[in-house]
Structure formats: structure tokens, C-alpha cells
Amino acid sequence: MGPEIELDYLLNHPIANSVTSDVNSETMARRSFSPKKIRIFTREYSLLEDQPQFKFSNDKEAEKVLPDIIGNKVQTVTLNGQLSEIQKQAFSKKRNVGVVFSGGPAPGGHNVIAGLYDEVKKYNPESKLLGFIMGPDGLIESRHVEITRELVDAHRNMGGFSMIQTGRTKIDSKKKMDASLQSCLHLGLDALVVIGGDDSNTNAAFLAQHFKGSGIKVIGVPKTIDGDIQVSTDDGDVLCAISFGFHTAARAFSQNISNLASDGQSTVKYWHVCKVMGRVASHLTLESALQTHATLSLIGEELADYVDRERLEKARENKTIDYNAFGITLRHLSRLICDIIVKRAAAGKNYGIMIIPEGILEFINEIQVFIIKINKIIAEYNTIHDQDFHRTFPGLNEKLEYLRWISQGMIDKSPFPIWNLRDDELFNQLPPFFRAGLLVERDLHGNFQFSQVKTEKMIMDMVKEYLGVLKEQGVYKIGIKNSEYKVNMASCNLDPDLYAKAIFRNPNARFLLVKETVISQKTLKHALVSNGLMDVEENIPGPILEIFKKSQPNFKTQTHFYGYDGRGSAPSHFDCNYTYNLGMTAFHLIAGNATGQMAAIRNLEMDFEKWEPIGIPIAKLMHLEERKGKLELVIEKSIVDLNSNAFRVYKALRDKCVALDSEEDHYRQPGPVRFASETEEDRPISLVLNSLGPKNK
Fold first, then answer.
1. Which of 57, 418, 531, 654 is the most buried (most CB within 10 A)?
2. Residue 697 reports pLDDT greater than 50
3. What residues are annotated to the active site?
């Protein structure tokens, strides 16, 4: 080893500075990358054209509380006509536009701001774009920063919402709306752009209504990695196929999951259980399944639609109705998972990859009933006592005691209490950690926080318990490859055919399974002795003992949660282009005098050349839904359509993914997230599949 190099020399060396710099070549390439523009945005001006053929049914409550924007039509950004000089002057007037991030980050958010900024400055360099700091709180409290070119250029095509940060505060009172309006008036804003999910766009609709008299326009932008903002008309026309950030998050999760598949095939000893974000819908699970060909992927919407035919048949025989046969139970779900594990083990594969959505419990009836009842109990307690349930009963035992009082009629004295003795009995059968999870504090919107519950642990604990039973019964065994068995036997001059009949239930199969009665060395020896292959005093032949040990499964799991890593990923090529055009769409809606509209891109499921910028009336997407025990107007979340091309293709591929008929697995390597490459996908697989059909040939 040579003499030690001086630290100052190292720190000042240009190569050392280059490789340890905050900004690497990938970052520089991302910042300099120019997203594609939809053709209309390469023109000088645009017009907004109403599209009355796209119809929505109005919610009566929405008509009542959003009267000034409920009549909005779907609008396309187009140039079907000539602008007058007055229109051109109005289009290019000096504007102050505000922008706010709301909710969790999603890849591509910075490009929405970049597209908005570029259009604002393109039409009038004197216009300003102001960003509210830390989300809706910044809007309410008028904390802002002017967004400059330097700030935008530093964040182009980059992940996160770090440019102005974000927050989850809901603008759900007149006081907050008045404060928001005063912030915008004080800054002389002409328009406000709200970038967020379903709740954030709900905020945008109420702000648009509240701001209507001031002349300040409000435009929403659909963001959520869960993919549960999808908009279709009453006639089934798709106006927004997916929200931005979904593609990148799914690809980021899928790369990690495919890496685990490589590990599983290498070590052949783990089942990797991967929980991915998706509280209400399983879109990320479905896309990840299509991306990776994971062994087993559970789509919550399919589980909710499950019918136990065997239970129905038994009920018919007894001339009864089994209401529990509709919708899967936790116990039956664990049995279905065990069935796959046992079958793969029989094919010599005691390993695999499982993907489950974060909100899988929301699709299981027995758990959903508990969630609904507990939500109601908490909401009623907060209303009646004007106190917070979780502050009054901070510990699990205190919460359980309160539920017990209700079930015993000490609090709820009605003939049919909301929490009865049967509920109490079933609830107490759940694992303690899960009971604690069901009683955790709800989020700001009154939703059960599935991410706080180790769903995968509870399901896999039930799986392990049942696998233990199947192992004791001799059902759960690892298949021994017939060719390897014969080689091992021949090396010790033992007749493979003779021994196979004694110890295997399928002596001529490709993968040999030890008989169900052979569950220990003692029962193995008994089988050999009873078939005249050895005496009681002799030791079991080495190759036979080795084969028996190989046939005994040791079920091991590794659990993983994919969420924050995906939502913080640098955006894919698809999301870079999508979000930049969303930002430009938001500006053109503002320039066209629109308000209460959601900026969207139609035909996302098709090639880029067919993308069409539009404005969707947010008020028409809203309906009444129970939140915190009260009915509130919100945008309905979109769940996986079991009749969609994407789900039907996945369902058809399931047997291939389980891979029982092949020695090799069929895992797919999606590769890393890129933003500019010949091998980069141009859209999510689920959208590609859903675009297939006669009208899109």
C-alpha cells in the first residue's frame, strides 16, 4: 500500500468533485430533456370548444352547492376557428397565476408546473407564476414564492414535489375558503391551479364556486399514483384514462419486484410478499402484475366479487341461504393462497412472488363490516361528546372496553346495537396487532389508514398456520425431480423403480411426491420395511433419507412495502410528456376563461399523436359519499373494471404466472424507469391493452 493521499488533495480533485457532486450526468440529462408537445400547443393560439355530446348525470346536491359551475361542459383545446384581435389580446394579457400541490407526491408534478410556466411566459413574459408553499396551508396562510425560470429549470423532469412542497390540509370550511380567496386577491391572481387527487380536485371545485364572483379562475389537475382518478361519461366514453404518476410508480415497484423474482429463483427458499399502494383500488397491483408476471397477484375488486360455489351448493342441499358465500373471507383467502403454494411446491418450487394491494382488506366483507361499524362509532362519539375518541381512549384496551360496553347494552340500548355480542366475539378472534390496527386513528378525511396495518403479516400468518396443518397431513410436500432421483439412486446402485413404488404416490411423474402417510423418518422407515426394502435393524439408505429431507418444506417469507419509493421516483418518459402537456392544458383553459374544470388529456391509451387536451367539469364528477360519519360531496374513485381488457388478459395469464406446467418460471423484467430511451414504454401496459379493439385498429 502506497503513502496516504492528503484529504485536501482528494476533496479538491476535479474527478472527486465530479463523482461526488449533488448533480450527476443523469440529473443534467433530465433537466435538459424537452418533452413532446401535443400539436395544438405548437400553434400560436387556441380556442375552447364545448363538447355537449359528452354527458354526465348531475348529483342533486352538487347542483345545489355548486350552481355556478355545475353547467360546465367538457371542452376541447382546439383551433377550429379564427381568433379576433380582441381575443388574441385577451389571450396574451399579463396574468398572475397561482399553483399549489395538494396531497402526496406523484412523479411528474414538477413538469405540470414547467408546462404551465412555459406557456404563461410564452404569451406574456411579464406574467408571473406564484407557488404556494407546503400545499393548501400555504394557500390559506398566503405563504408563497415566485416561480422563476431558474427554479423551474432545476426541477424539470425530476421527481417529488420539492419545488414548493405539499400538504394534506383540506379546504373544507367557509373560513378556509375565505382565507384562500383573500390570499389570491392580495396577490392579484387571475387564476389558481390545484394539482392533486380526488379530494384536492374536490377542493378545486368548491374554490371555483367560492371564487366565481371575484373573477379568479380555478383549474384542477388529476394526480394520484393509485390510478383511481379515471373519468368516463355516462355513455362510456373515456375522457381521462389514468392520473399522472401512476405509470412511474408502477414501473418503480415493478423493477423492485422483478429483482426479488431474480433473487427467489436464485436462492429458491423465499416467498416474497409485496404490498403496493392502493387503498381503494388495485390498479397498481394489476399493472405491476402485468409488468412482472409475479407468481400470484391479488386483485381486491375480484375478491369482492368472489362467490364460494361450494358453500352455495351446501346451502341449497340444506334448503338454506348462505349469505357469507358472497365475497371472500380472510380464512378462505388464506386457503386459496395455500393452494397455490402447495401446488408450486409439488412442482419443485417452494418459492414465489406475491403482490397484494395496500387496501385489500377493504374488499373483504367481514373486515369491511368492522371498519364501517367502528368508523360510525368513532364519528358518533366525536359528535355526541364533542371530544376526540382517540384522545379519550388512547390505549387499545380502553377502546376495546368501550366496544364491549356497547355490545352489552351499557351505552347503545337499542334493540339492534351497532356493535353486538357477535361482533365482539368475531373481533376478539382477530390477532391483537390487527385489532389495534382496525382501531387506529383515521386520516384527515376520515378514512381507515390501511398503510398503518401490517395486512401482509396477518394474511401470511393465517397462511403459515394452515400450511402447518397441511404439512402434518402430508399434503404439503416439495416435488423431487424424477431425473435427479434416478441419478442419486443409480450412484448407490439402488433400484429407483422399486423404491419409488414404496415411497412416492406418483412414481412415474416428472416431479415425485412422497406419500401423504410418510411424514417423518419413522413413517419412512415403516414404508420401506413393509415393502421388504430393508430390515427393522438397518438404517435408512442415504439417498432415500436425503430425498425425504428435500421433500420436507420449510415455508419462509420476506415482506416488502412499496409506496413512498415509487411516488418519489423520477418520472418516466410517459409521465414527463403527460404532465408537461397537462400544465400547458391548464394555461389554455385559463386563457379560454374556463373555471371549475379539470385539465386532462384524452386518448392517453393511444399513441401520442392522438392525445387531445381537454377540460372536464369537476362538479359533474361529484357525488355524495360518507366521510367521518357524514355525507359529503366528493369525486368518486375508480376501481379496477373486471370486464376491462387489462384485467381479462391478466386473468388469462394467471396459470402461466403460477408456472406449474413448466420447470422455468415466466417472470418478466420490466427494467428501470427511464425518461428517454428506445426501450422505454410509451404508456402503461394496462392502457395499451385497454386501447385494443375494433375502433382503435
1. 418
2. no
3. 226
